[in-house]
From TrEMBL:
<dbReference type="Pfam" id="PF02738">
    <property type="entry name" value="MoCoBD_1"/>
</dbReference>
<dbReference type="InterPro" id="IPR016208">
    <property type="entry name" value="Ald_Oxase/xanthine_DH-like"/>
</dbReference>
<feature type="domain" description="Aldehyde oxidase/xanthine dehydrogenase first molybdopterin binding">
    <location>
        <begin position="25"/>
        <end position="155"/>
    </location>
</feature>
<dbReference type="GO" id="GO:0005506">
    <property type="term" value="F:iron ion binding"/>
</dbReference>
<protein>
    <submittedName>
        <fullName>Aldehyde oxidase and xanthine dehydrogenase, molybdopterin binding domain protein</fullName>
        <ecNumber>1.-.-.-</ecNumber>
    </submittedName>
</protein>
<dbReference type="GO" id="GO:0016491">
    <property type="term" value="F:oxidoreductase activity"/>
</dbReference>
<dbReference type="InterPro" id="IPR037165">
    <property type="entry name" value="AldOxase/xan_DH_Mopterin-bd_sf"/>
</dbReference>
<keyword id="KW-0560">Oxidoreductase</keyword>
<dbReference type="InterPro" id="IPR008274">
    <property type="entry name" value="AldOxase/xan_DH_MoCoBD1"/>
</dbReference>
<keyword id="KW-0500">Molybdenum</keyword>
Length: 156
């Protein structure tokens, strides 16, 4: 047979350009080859230099990591990281473990905005878990976020 009958024949993702390829939108537009010529045709051209200062990302959830050893003596870290596999690769040589001896769990996080794309506290938690063989939790306060975490650099 042909399998189960189709119940809903409407699109699963109305308004999504190509859901099967995870492409939400497609924009057709002209590519500007000659910038000066395009600016010459513009009704208005504004030229200005803009400066932004260094900024703290300020996600709702600060950096936090909880670590423990599981039943197979594997280091498990539950972290607010945006890069769990990168963190695991970086931790392994620091702690003298293979990547197979480390598991990094990244639950849904309360924002990151790029501030959690590096390992910041996971190495500290990993070292403490291995040294004490006990669970460890480290959560930065808001003040510690401003003093100790990554920021977006100033731009001109």
């Amino acid at each position: 047979g042909t399998g189960a009958p189709q119940i809903h024949d409407e699109s699963d993702s109305p308004g999504i350009y190509d859901a099967s390829r995870n492409v939400s939108n497609h924009i057709e537009g002209a590519t500007v080859q000659d910038i000066e010529e395009a600016l010459g045709r513009a009704d208005h051209v504004f030229e200005q230099t803009f400066h932004t200062q260094q900024m703290q990302h300020c996600p709702v959830e600060p950096h936090i990591a909880i670590g423990w050893l599981d039943g197979d003596d594997r280091l498990v870290l539950r972290s607010s990281t945006q890069v769990p596999f990168h963190t695991r690769r970086m931790l392994a040589p620091l702690l003298g473990l293979s990547v197979k001896q480390i598991r990094v769990i990244k639950p849904r996080i309360g924002g990151g905005f790029g501030a959690k794309q590096e390992m910041l506290i996971e190495d500290i938690v990993g070292h403490l878990v291995l040294a004490t063989r006990r669970p460890v939790r480290l959560e930065l306060t808001r003040e510690e976020e401003f003093v100790s975490s990554r920021t977006r650099h100033a731009q001109t």
